[in-house]
Amino acid sequence: MSTTRRSLAGLVAGSALLVSGLSGCGVAGTDFHPGVAARVGDATVSVDEVDSLTDSYCSAIEDQLTKAKNVVPLGYLRSGVVGQLTLVEAAKQLAAEYGVSTGAQYEQKVAELRSAVAALSPDEQKAVIEIESSSAYLTDVLTAVGGQRLEEKGTKNPEPTASAAEGQKALTAWLDDHDVSIDPQFGLAIKDGKAVPTDTSLSYAVGDAAKKGQADSPDQVYAAALPDAHRCG
């Protein structure tokens, strides 16, 4: 299976409730401004960016889903995208503080993806590369940060696994110390350095449909019954 046709698991890990109809809208009872999907320190992730990446990524993988007779709610993908973008933005700011950059793993991943998506449209290429390389970006940055911290503590030539674990601690502390939040419409929150599902989604009443939409593997009957504009596949 090609890189662009890999499992969706990496993208949607930690995704949350199905979201519908709130793109670009302020949410009552929150301090989020219209169009802001997440705040990460002084930076923001826009709803437009989340929607653009989600739509283009869906377009890139839709043939695979159709052939496999799978359907995924777009809200399921949107949550995965906003969670990854939030963590990547935090990692960028953390990397700047420590003066580190990505290494060979990330660069190799991006190169592989560029080759694999050459036949896709420019927007699809951008979406697949940005989404599918995000985990490699996080790993490289956290390993570099953690390695530096361990060396400062006296560890010589720290192992990558230990460095990554130390880097994760640094990211978790950074997230706790800064204003980092995700619009409740996405049903995600940052906890212990990760984007995890919450019950904050305000898009509809919680019920059987909500449970089907937020499952680790969305109910296929439920997903297939969604309007075309709210599903992928």
TrEMBL record:
Keywords: Signal. The lineage of its organism: Bacteria, Bacillati, Actinomycetota, Actinomycetes, Propionibacteriales. It comes from the Bacteria. The keyword Signal applies. This is SurA N-terminal domain-containing protein. The keyword Signal applies. Residues 1-28 form the signal peptide.
